[in-house]
Amino acid sequence: MQVSSLIALPLMTGGSAAEYDALAAGLIRAAQARADEPEEAAAFLRLVLSLGPRTVKRQASEALADLTDDGVYPPEWVTGIGKPTARQAYRGRDVFGDYEVILVTFSYADAEHALFVSLDLAELPTVVSVSLSEDVPRLLKFIEESDDLVERLEPIALSEARRRIEVPLAQVGQDPDYEIESSTFLALPLARSRVRRLPAPEPGLAVSYTAADRAAAVDDFRQSPEAADAGDPEVTRFWAQALTGYSSRVADEAPAQVGPHKLSAALLVHVVRTFTLSAGQIDGMRPAVTAWARWAARRQGLDEAATETLLTHLATDLGDFQGTYDDPVNVVARGYVRDIARPDADAARLADGRARRELAAPLPENRAPGDEAVDPADPDGRAVLVASEFGQCDLAGADTGEFLAAVSRVVEELWQDAPPATWQAGRNLLAQGLDPHDVIHRLAESGRQ
Q1: DSSP state, residue 368
Q2: Which of 183, 241, 354, 436 makes the best surface tag, with the fewest CB within 10 Å?
Q3: Would you state the pLDDT for residue 91?
């Protein structure tokens, strides 16, 4: 856990390649300074090799090889490090399905420990916290007795546990709007290494819901008793499609999943950033959304107390909606998907389209001063953003006009998704840790060669 904490330090500041290089060099120097206890230095390097990312692993491996060349080997106890036996996995959710916890136990011989991961399911499955415990019985008892934490804790397959937490653990820290406690960052390298010990999920286990499933749920609502109090039928249809589509945006979530946190995300994040609403849709919002929430709660099997809790939270969201919708940041955000934001659109596909276009045209907070209100949906607006961001790039003698023309071409290909290969290349570069500016720069340069 101490080595995990050391390796995690760059994660708290973005985890750039340069930071990891510096960290690796520092860790190697620390080990080499233990000349009086070379076996302890070898043990430390073996731990670093077990938990570190690729850059750290490489340097630790080279330093460990130098020690073994001199006849120095890690002590016997180190040979099993990072190779505990996975024992049992458990899963629990709160009554609404807004949060999920996964607990997995591991053991070295008779010594047992547990990995505990808490997930927020309101938008994409996102890690809330990660911890490890040596007192497994006490942890299980705490979870089972905490009514606010989970409704019930049930055993699941080890491969299922991996399927649910591997990607969220890999993405910790990537959402700048989601605050992560330092204790979670410090446990992250160890948690990721434990997940790699779990069996790989079998293909096809996740249940994906289709447009037909969402349309059927909308029809079910429109024929329900709750819809009788929902107001104008066309306005009701719009809100039912928008909320139902959002509620099934990820695998395993059936249409019309509803909870206070998830409903807030749907209205105050998804809707305000996606749909340009008519006056009728805004005026008819309260009865339509309230009716849909009552229907979804009944469909989900929520009891009366849980339903009232949901509706109390909804009333607050409805009161906050107009101000959030009119926020200039959200006004600009709607421009990114204005032409593709149908109420029955697949929310996951919309999210991918938004990510693609946000690479093409930076968000207001990442623009040059004075460009915050530029509409990214306007080709002339995109041209303004290109000139502001790339007009002063150091081109090492290359022609500025040619370079800006190449950047504009890349931006338009990303915006229109034509050809799709440009977005695929951009996505790959983002996954390698490049920032959006450098991604566009590299794509433009490669297109000019």
Answers
A1: P
A2: 183
A3: 93
